[in-house]
User: Fold this.
Amino acid sequence: MVTIQLIPYSEIEGLSSVGRIRKILNIAKEDKIVLLQGRLSKEEEAELIKVTMEEINSEFKGIELAVLDPSSNLKGLAKARDDLANKLLGTRSGLTIVGPASVVKEIKRNPHKIELLTHKSSSSKKKKRK
Amino acid sequence: MLSVFKSFINKVFLSLFKKKRQLKIGLYGPPNGGKTTLANTICKDWLGEEMGSVSNIAHETREVMIKEQLNIKRNDQELTFNLVDTPGIATKIDYEEFIRLGMSEKKAKARAKEATKGVIESIRWLDEMDVVLVVLDATVDPYSQVNITIIGNLAAREIPVLIVANKIDLKKANMKRIESAFPQYPVVGISAKYGKNTDQFYEALFGVAK
Assistant:
């Protein structure tokens, strides 16, 4: 069975980068898939990978990560407006998916869709579409 | 006011007495993209010697390697830099995969441990780079989060990037897919293993490093 835990942005809003990463990783280490409203910053993504590497052992093999950023295609004024909104309100738009490597085999993505493939031992194969 | 004055004095003194830092060009990317093969090609072309060992098994490079004072020339231009080959960045490392590829359990666990340290080192070195060559396997889907995270972090640090689509000698190679995944960056296709398109590669390197 696959367990998905949804985290609204309000739950991480007040946390520091370290706190956000710790929260996400603790849930992933419980063999749950995290669906986080909003997205981590690029620096936080790199930090998440770094902390994951520090914690890999024979039980915990790492994570699969995907960050959906709807603003990545914005240009000009729309981009400036989005940047300002992010600064004022936080990066609520988009979605961050983090799954433990023992459960999630692969997250396939292209600009139009995202597919989350779980290992065979899990009871079902899931697909999500953007 | 005092801190602004101090900062100004520091900047002036540093610019007067600090030895100019050597340009650092880093090779970044996911495991098995061909970073060390490209480093070897560059070093063989300009120094006549290789930089590191390569393997089909992922995470062969598990420590940051530096080749200092590489000097390359093209037409009337000259570029001197330190080449930094970094371990491949991954979000997961499973020692059992190494066992499946024929390694003993002890060796596989040691390789996995070293590989995790290598990824951490690669990320730490990001701040040191002046220019980065992101080496991607042109036969593999480029829309991976690792690629997006690496390139996003380089953009956030305003580090110039050249994307190297490696392994274009293979039938499955698809350069257009890489170009459309990262349209804001220059992409050059090469086969580091066979030295194909290295002229275009050096031209692009001069373009991004100057």
Q: What stands out?
A: Chain B touches chain A at residues 89-95, 109, 112, 116-117, 119-120, 123-124, 126, 141, 143-146, 148-149, 152-153, 155-156 (CB under 8 Å).
